[in-house]
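Researcher: Please generate the 3D structure of the following complex. Treat every line as part of one assembly.
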Amino acid sequence: MSTASFRALHDRLRRQVPWGTGDRRGALNHISPERLAAAAGEARLGRSFTLAAPLASSAPDNPEPGMRHMKRLPGEPPDVPGVSFAADQLVMNVHGDVDSHIDALCHVSYDGTLYNGVRPGAVTSQGASELSIEDVRNGIVGRGVLLDIPRLRGIRWLEPGECVSAAELAAAEAAQQVQVGPGDVLFVRVGHRRRRDELGPWDVAQSRAGLHPDAMAYLAERQIAALGSDSNSDTAPSVVEGVAFPVHVLAIQAMGVHLLDYLQFEDLLPACEAAGRWTFLCVVAPLRLRGGTGSPVNPIAIL
Amino acid sequence: MSTASFRALHDRLRRQVPWGTGDRRGALNHISPERLAAAAGEARLGRSFTLAAPLASSAPDNPEPGMRHMKRLPGEPPDVPGVSFAADQLVMNVHGDVDSHIDALCHVSYDGTLYNGVRPGAVTSQGASELSIEDVRNGIVGRGVLLDIPRLRGIRWLEPGECVSAAELAAAEAAQQVQVGPGDVLFVRVGHRRRRDELGPWDVAQSRAGLHPDAMAYLAERQIAALGSDSNSDTAPSVVEGVAFPVHVLAIQAMGVHLLDYLQFEDLLPACEAAGRWTFLCVVAPLRLRGGTGSPVNPIAIL
Amino acid sequence: MSTASFRALHDRLRRQVPWGTGDRRGALNHISPERLAAAAGEARLGRSFTLAAPLASSAPDNPEPGMRHMKRLPGEPPDVPGVSFAADQLVMNVHGDVDSHIDALCHVSYDGTLYNGVRPGAVTSQGASELSIEDVRNGIVGRGVLLDIPRLRGIRWLEPGECVSAAELAAAEAAQQVQVGPGDVLFVRVGHRRRRDELGPWDVAQSRAGLHPDAMAYLAERQIAALGSDSNSDTAPSVVEGVAFPVHVLAIQAMGVHLLDYLQFEDLLPACEAAGRWTFLCVVAPLRLRGGTGSPVNPIAIL
Amino acid sequence: MSTASFRALHDRLRRQVPWGTGDRRGALNHISPERLAAAAGEARLGRSFTLAAPLASSAPDNPEPGMRHMKRLPGEPPDVPGVSFAADQLVMNVHGDVDSHIDALCHVSYDGTLYNGVRPGAVTSQGASELSIEDVRNGIVGRGVLLDIPRLRGIRWLEPGECVSAAELAAAEAAQQVQVGPGDVLFVRVGHRRRRDELGPWDVAQSRAGLHPDAMAYLAERQIAALGSDSNSDTAPSVVEGVAFPVHVLAIQAMGVHLLDYLQFEDLLPACEAAGRWTFLCVVAPLRLRGGTGSPVNPIAIL
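Model: Done. Output below.
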């Protein structure tokens, strides 16, 4: 896709945002109380599933791994009477290419602005004064829909570099007998987590399956509330000349759609298949990191 | 309470655990699929509320504050074409006396063992090989119940050092017309978060309201699945001779009840009052920290 | 001192810098090879002393304490044959009000520039592309001189808020029979480390002894190479209207004098007194932190 | 070398330690005040050189890279009047396979003890109560000697896996006309830093040049005070059956010799060659990390 075509697509999607100049929640506005309450009705089997992967160690896709160190061990002499504790400390980057996380709307700057015209200067060394992850403090609670592209194609996973088109999303809907609609939290599975588990990690920053930018126009029509993947939704290399992460730009900066990156669906998948159902109650609960550009998350799917 | 009485109470509660020696999930077993599905029915208004407080900065109750530092600013020249990013890094202790978190069952050692007889040596400098927070990877999803003790007493908050007895929990149930039952995620509000907001932080490690150890016998009978508070559920100073955190010992080590510490209920409270209802769907989603002793969390209450 | 007087002093000191517009080492240029070799002649007793304090824990002057956590314990089963290791991890702020550190020349911006007209934009979220601590990678090696102000005054320490004037520096030189000269690394003791040891920590950010700005003109004439203190050389509150850290501005930004903050002289002091000598070989070895604004250090004094 | 031969060598070297059971400084005792003062006489040219490499980023030899993040930028609005600051934060492992550091004597446990019979339990999750790096708080100041093995062999660097024998150390002394003696801080260059600079990083944990264990007997006779290298002094794979780091065991645990790992000599080397001299004043200044197993360092060589 040429730079000019991308810009035209971007500008069109941006103009369609109906929330007004003061909005800071973007597509989460699509989740009305009615839709949220209806989504709760998906939790009929009473079973919950993690959509996150465990904190990863050093690997080709994880050059700055998060670390969890012990501060105190229960086998050692206690420092208070009668009881001893185990405690630890956490050091981790919020983004990156392997740990499951959510991007705040301040994460992406394009054409000199963040989402909804907010100036990049709203993010300083002290954090984001606007569009931070704190704006999602009440969580994302809505109907989750999982579209399984490898299932549609009859393969185990998409190869790095491959693209999912709007047409393919529509085909997956048809095959799975599900319709993506307003306020849905859409998950598009490309099978990268399974590929990583079976073949080992690779440098996903250089080579990664994701959505074609055109698919974002389709999803804008469907009025999704948020978008997640077991990749980061963007292919690598980019299919757009001169724009490295076109889906990030369209989703976060133009449409105000929060992205959920590097999730895993391998636990949920067999349950969906057994139930013959690809919708569920979904709850995403970012940490309350004031000024934060995102958060590590463990999205929960409830069937 | 004497050391001997405490030990007797401990041993009795520990003997009552029905899950067998191999169990690692403790009271979460009380949440059956049926109870989970029923809990989803609480989400009728379609509104969600955070039960976490924002990451706190340095204060008398926060001697080792978590830090969130910027790694990249969107106003700076991008390192990839056409788009620039804001990104940050997180350093934080998992426990402590102010940030909202969940304690894993490996967190407490008493009388030479962790929960269910697991030896403390299962926790090394490399983390917990048993009873880590990874055992809660699918989240805690169930009916949440909020008992508001300051409301019962007609005050704004309990003063540090005060105790909530079993009788008072029963009185709160009666006053709020709610019955705590099997599989519930119980939240006991002592008002400490409000006190902190209004009077400023104090050294809560030295002086804190919480539950009386006797209340744990009451909650064991009720078969709660997990217990949270806007304190850490334990009073300071301890009311038990020679045991610093008796409620931690009883809940985590004897009963296998995960504790949720230093939550905030100030957002949820007005909604409960307006709805005249103190039950809700509750989702707690710990990060997947392999070997971890707990996790920062943002529990979500859905009315 | 009025803002205008300060500005005049600043501009005069800045104009006196003789090193040319491309210089990035500032007053360290005063240490010629001859002076360095001569300084080595101070090491006659063959005894070395630390001028750093141990990494501090949380205290009123240390709201974000550095942390050192164990990664591996020698008593645990080894992960390689025949040997086991102890290892740890370090998390610490480079500056702050208690841990001994050196300020790089990029640390201070005044009047829209860093030292020698370098624009503040040279420091981004990726670090300092100019004037970073890497410019001191070969260490500061020269003659150290300790001026002991409490000794001059016959007291144990200066009280927080007190000022050391140029005249008092001259009086200390006379009393100690030492002459501060070109290329010296000057240490001015105000006794704050002793006060902290004996009375306990206080909020030194609010109340601190240091040099009067006029003293910097005196030290510019003497052509010192670097300046250290057991405070941070600046008084609090500031004696200059509208400028919070006037000595930092004059030393680092105008004169290119690296500052060494929050050192301790209590180990060195008795040795100097016993030797009747206040000069020594001094070696400061900052870590090689590319782009860094400073470094934790342990300056060594060799008598 | 067989496990039994190694054990015999170990036991012999350990028995030779003359400092008594209470000693915690090991071979640093060889640096008498006279030797230190004499070493200062090496600083005749008045030039200093770093022996450290810059903090490394992620690479095959650096799976958990240290990070330096900005906390404050000078181009942003100041939070105090009239001046703005650049500040940063440091997160780094103390050991590892690329960043220059010193190992404390608590770092190595062999045969159930640390150096001089100290039990491994002296190191807990709270740090080392004995043999920590704080014991080196006054720095290591002595005569440095650089033996350049690639120079002796007429090559650019030793290949990973190669060994330096006692005979080769003696040959290097002869070729460089220098005699290693009591109290010297010995640096053995294998050229790995140059190899890394020119060929790029490799997985040095698997493949690394170092000393043969026999060389340690030679160095014990010479009574060196400390030992450094641009490797970590141990070959990989190990030449001893069943013992992964034999030189670490002999140096640190048996002889009480502090090791300086992953230094760089590329700056010093041309100056030594030009001066025709391989001795210098050496100053190593570890950070004061209470309980620490070592410290990042920037050793300074002064010619």
